[in-house]
Fold this sequence. Notes:
By secondary structure, this protein is α+β, with helices and mostly antiparallel strands. Helices cover 27% and strands 36% of the residues.
Amino acid sequence: MQICLxxxxxxxxxxxxxxxxxxxxxxxxDLDHINLEERKQWFETHSADKYPVYVGVVNGKILAWFSFxxxxxxxxxxxxxxxxxxxxxxxxxxxxxxxxxMNFAIEKAPELGFKNLFAILLEPNTASIxxxxxxxxxxxxxxxxxxxxxGEVCSQRIYGRKx
Length: 163
């Protein structure tokens, strides 16, 4: 898989993949699909030099994406930390693409000035928990029973690691 910076032209596919995660439930705390205008606004909060968005491409097709995002944007004391988010097209699960994205993120983080990476996820998302633990992320926080996904109350976890 080739991993490269996302472009505006990629936003429709990025959004499709994200909306698949919404439909799957427990992969994001969003409950309603994100429209393309919302995705464009989100993309504007990222930049190639500090909080980039990347796409994973195989044979010219985007199969996955991930982003570095600000934690408490505007709070300069926190700029050495970034939230990572990653999503794989549902037709390409369990093919090693998440591992490739995670390796890339960990290698790229120091170049962007990050000393800490963290991911925020819902507790039922055991696939992400296993992935993060495989890459030496540790449970840094647990927020008990704060999310309601279709009537199912669940906790949120924050996994982190030093880079």
